[in-house]
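Most newcomers find our protein records easier to grasp once they have seen one. A record pairs a protein's sequence with a compact description of its fold. An example says more than a description, so a record of this kind follows:
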Amino acid sequence: MKTIILRINNDLPNYLCYFIKVSISILLLMIYGSAYTQKKYDFQVNIYGKGTPMNLITGYSCSGAYGQKPIFVLGSKYETLEKSQQILSQQYKYVKKLTLHTTNSKHFNMYDQPIWFFELDTFLK
């Protein structure tokens, strides 16, 4: 039976140096790979046509630079209706002629309160 003996004074620094080089190379490849696959923007809002309403993402405030265009938010991520009203009115406080309508619907499409479909259609006209 053969035994492998490491010469501690001579071989160990070489193994450690090799291990560190390989570890740094793998780490750099992982960082480059994640940076390469990440998109430039995390989200985007598409606006089609002139004067169409914008669907703003909740959680981001509005600077009021949109002027007289109607703005509406579909859905809220906040716990209660009162908290949603408070936060949304604070976020859109710079929008001229803001009218904030809220409902306590349980679904995104508001199947449990279909009157909101008609009110939204009237608002857009």
About this structure: The longest strand covers residues 54-55. The CA atoms of residues 58 and 88 lie 8 Å apart.
